[in-house]
Specification:
The chain folds into two domains: 118 residues, Rossmann fold, CATH 3.40.50.1390; 47 residues, Arc Repressor Mutant, subunit A, CATH 1.10.10. Helices cover 44% and strands 13% of the residues. It has seven helices and seven strands, in the order ββββαβαββααααα. Helix 5 packs antiparallel against helix 6.
Length: 205
């Protein structure tokens, strides 16, 4: 049996576990290895980029049945409870024990096993809740349209950005690229393309 630490240095709620197990049934024992969550950043086009190896995937691949994974909090896996529990379920399916100190969570306990077995129900509920919200939104829009109170979302335009002209000139002078242009406006690349099309069209009129 090996005992692994899982840290998420980008989670402000998570305490970083050192080389020694701090407390619990394995207190005082050294971790056999430590894995960390990768840094995640949002690109200018809105996509999520993972920087570096995914410690969670690597840990899931390396750990063997009867091994133990210890983390300071389940939020190191995900801030969404169902997603965090899904990660625990993947370890559990391989016979790997997961312990989270802050939630007093131990995947071998009956209480936690009931939660893991309830995951299919949780996933169905989340899907149905999303569908229900969407249907309610559509019904609300339909009612508002009938009452003449819904005109739709106002389309975004260059006029919504006070510094658009300045950045546009820098872009045309090749001082900044399109990616940096979008980043300065805090919009995605497709949105910037639409803004540029609208701006150049109005300039030609």
């Amino acid at each position: 049996m090996q005992i692994f630490a899982y840290n998420n240095p980008y989670n402000q709620m998570g305490q970083i576990l050192s080389s020694m197990i701090p407390f619990g049934v394995f207190a005082g024992r050294q971790f056999d290895a430590t894995y960390e969550a990768p840094e995640v950043s949002r690109q200018s086009d809105g996509r999520i980029k993972v920087n570096g190896p995914d410690g969670e995937e690597q840990l899931l691949a390396d750990a063997k049945p009867n091994d133990v994974v210890i983390t300071s909090t389940l939020t190191n896996f995900s801030v969404d409870f169902i997603s965090a529990l899904q990660t625990v379920a993947e370890f559990d399916a391989k016979g790997i024990r997961v312990i989270a100190y802050q939630e007093d969570f131990d995947s071998t306990n009956l209480r936690e096993q009931v939660l893991i077995q309830s995951l299919p129900l949780m996933h169905k509920f989340r899907r149905n809740a999303f569908k229900a919200r969407r249907l309610n939104q559509l019904a609300g829009i339909e009612t508002a349209v009938k009452k003449g109170k819904f005109t739709g979302r106002k389309p975004i335009s260059p006029a919504d950005f006070p510094d658009f002209g300045k950045y546009y000139n820098q872009y045309m002078m090749r001082e900044i690229g399109k990616g940096e242009f979008a980043k300065k406006l805090k919009v995605s690349r497709p949105t910037l393309d639409k803004l540029l099309e609208d701006f150049t069209k109005k300039k030609g009129e």
